[in-house]
Design a protein that fits this description.
The chain is mainly alpha-helical. About 65% of the residues lie in helices and about 0% in strands.
Length: about 280
């Protein structure tokens, strides 16, 4: 009260107007409703680009699985796989150095030292690795590996923040899958080559994302390579992979873009108060 009169209500929390904190006049309640406030709409190109990031990771997983099957059936020699990865690594390092011209000799030496240390440790542990799960059936190992790869796909970082995203869980799930699959080999060199492929596919390839071409182009190239390799293994698996990639990269972005128009958000006096500082 002020001079026997009821003060006019104002939406301020730092002044005592004589009203409860949760009070809103009836005539102001509905007038304060805002629809689709700060709503971000994505273009069709952005939807396809985002889906391409998921498609790239799916294609990498398919290529990894195909290489495992080729190593298992002796269609691919471990030496050939190691030499191929070494060549791709040299090309990638050359592109990185040419684009990022601030690479020092100390940083380059540290990277070479890390690669050398990993190679020595991986090669030393591979004789233990390929005999690790002799008492477990192959079907169980494959189920565990595929479940881990699915977790890897669900928790990978595709460029957008989400509670489920965790590169630590994603990388650990991929490494666990590699350990399971490597234990099915008859020679430690095959296990070592698959371990190197896992690090190359699930660690180095995501880190080299800035060096890759546009998401749509790189996704198309990886999907073509994955489907070509899978066609040599199984026609049913090829059809399933083709259906999954088409769903993720074509159907889902089109549906998401069309459903954006139906999205409706309502904001009003019931929302949490946000501190606003008036300009001086």
């Amino acid at each position: 009260m002020s001079n026997g009169k009821v003060p006019k209500w104002r939406k301020t929390l730092y002044e005592d107007n004589g009203y409860p904190d949760n009070y809103t006049p009836p005539e102001c309640f509905l007038a304060a409703i805002e629809k689709n406030k700060n709503l971000l709409l994505y273009s069709l190109w952005e939807c396809f680009s985002g889906a391409a990031e998921v498609g790239k990771e799916m294609s990498v997983v398919i290529i990894f699985w195909c290489c495992y099957k080729f190593l298992k059936t002796d269609l691919l020699k471990p030496e050939t796989l190691l030499v191929t990865m070494l060549g791709l690594l040299v090309v990638g390092c050359t592109m990185f150095i040419s684009r990022v011209r601030k690479v020092t000799f100390t940083g380059l030496l540290a990277g070479i030292k890390t690669i050398f240390l990993f190679t020595i440790i991986g090669f030393a542990l591979s004789p233990v690795l390929y005999k690790l799960t002799d008492t477990i059936s192959t079907d169980t190992i494959h189920s565990m590996a595929l479940s881990s790869l699915l977790i890897h796909l669900l928790t990978s970082d595709y460029g957008m923040y989400a509670p489920i995203v965790s590169w630590q869980i994603s990388l650990n799930a991929a490494v666990f899958s590699t350990v399971c699959l490597a234990s099915r080999f008859d020679h430690h060199l095959s296990a070592f080559s698959l371990l190197c492929l896992s690090v190359f596919s699930f660690l180095l390839v995501p880190l080299s994302r800035p060096l890759l071409p546009s998401p749509l182009l790189s996704s198309l190239l990886l999907a073509s390579a994955a489907l070509s390799l899978l066609s040599c293994i199984s026609t049913p698996q090829l059809c399933l992979a083709l259906l999954a990639l088409a769903t993720v990269q074509i159907a889902c972005p089109v549906m998401f873009h069309r459903l954006q128009a139906d999205k409706m958000t309502i904001h009003g006096p019931w929302d949490e108060a946000v501190i606003f500082t008036a300009p001086q």
